[in-house]
Amino acid sequence: MLIRPAFDAHEIDQVYRLTHDAYVEQGYITPRPDGRLRHYADVDAAAENMVLVAVEEDVIVGTVSITLDGPAGFHVDHDFRAECAAIRDEGLSVGASWRIITAPGYRGSTALVVELIRSTIDVLHRFEVETILCSFNPRHERIYRKLFGMSTVAHSEGVGAVKSPAVLMRASISEAVQSWQPPFNPALATLVAERARLLDVLSRVAA
């Protein structure tokens, strides 16, 4: 299995399809006519957002999105604005991980979820991010606390298009790297280098 950036619009569309089907299956949304779910569109379109896919035999079997802090903010700002502001005020660099989805045949694959999280840790560590923010259904709260040392910040009943309960969790990237040392992945190293250059150019233009 290879975890790498989504290559093109077709693969991003597959991510939206996977997300839609997973959310319908879990009862978070009703089926949509086009069979796609793109929530947090402002975050999704930001240059600070990166979409990874897990590919096995040329088929996308999982995905995770990673966001650096920027003008669009994080997906968790929508549900936990005050809590995110307080964490930013701590003065540490912050990043977020979201839209962790697995294909139907991999719903029970803890190993795939672990590899997606390890890849997230790798990317954020390369960007020198110190604190990661994530949101999950509360029923997954215990497993993320146990596996990744995440701590609970707050709970929400959900806002916007997806009406589902959520728990905001955080973790230290440096501690996560020590516990879950990611294997070297050249595709992710290239992604970080190229995205860092793009963000540098955008910041210069904005200035």
Descriptive account of the structure:
The protein has 207 residues and is of the alpha+beta class. It contains 8 helices and 7 strands, in the order βααββααβαβαββαα. Strands 1-2-3-4-5-7-6 form a 7-stranded mixed β-sheet, sandwiched between helices. Strand 2 (49-56) and strand 3 (59-68) form a beta hairpin. The mean pLDDT is 94.
The count of helical stretches stands at 8
CATH class: Alpha Beta
Helix/strand order: EHHEEHHEHEHEEHH
CATH architectural name: 3-Layer(aba) Sandwich
The biggest beta sheet, please?
Answer: 7 strands, mixed
End-to-end gap:
41 Å
Per the CATH scheme, the topology name is Aminopeptidase
Shape: globular
Please tell me how large the radius of gyration is: 16 Å
Strand percent estimate = 15-25%
Summing up helix and strand content along with how strands pair, one would put the structural category as alpha+beta
- Runs with pLDDT <50, length 5+? none
Mean pLDDT over all positions: 94
In total, the number of domains comes to 1
Helix content: 40-55%
The largest sheet has its strands arranged as 1-2-3-4-5-7-6
| Total strands | 7
Can you identify the CATH superfamily?
Gcn5-related N-acetyltransferase (GNAT)
Structure, briefly:
The chain is about 40% helix and about 25% strand. It has about 210 residues and is α+β, with helices and mostly antiparallel strands.
